[in-house]
Design goal:
Layout lengths: L1 H11 L17 H32 L3 E2 L5 E2 L4 H8 L3 E7 L2 E7 L3 H9 L2 H6 L19 H10 L1 H8 L12 H11 L17
Antiparallel strand pairs: 1-2, 3-4
Length: 202
Amino acid sequence: KQQNTSIENMGFRFLKDPIFFVSALFLKKPSRIMGLLMVMTLALLVYSIAQRRLRQALAAQNKTLPNQINQPTKTPTMRWIFQIMDGIHYVTININGVTQKIIQGLTDLKQKIIRFMGKTVMKIYNLTDNVNFAPEGSSMWDLGLMAGVIRDLGLMEKIDARLCLDSTKGGIVGYGQRVAAMILNGFGFMTKRLYMTLHFFR
């Protein structure tokens, strides 16, 4: 029991990290506090599964990734992976009616991480064994890893199965996708807009 408690505390430690947004919120109503706890618990679930998946892939293939001091490791944290994946930009340039799409910041290391995360994540990044990076329209590339895990878990479908969308009241976006958007924003990237989450879940 003590060991399980220790593991849980290590997992929830990310909630207190400055790069995450929990400390920036003030909630007064108990119902909103409960809603926040639910979203952050789901975020922890996604975070933990993503980290476990990456570590299992590294162990299975006997590969390593560089840690913060550039030493090889088979047990990187997702927090460190977030930092590695930062700096990928999708730029659309229109010159005299000619549109060009340019990807900046996608290194060999970032492609390697994407491949370790599995086919769903690769599909989000439009990365296959034969095709290089060719996205279709989002700049939120650091969160594609988490979106892939959410897809694989079927979280949106499970939530939608319990909470039916009432189109008569103007509902357009399902509750599952709304929760997925809040989970992605829960990883601390508060400058991103929730409506941009659609790019991950088409």
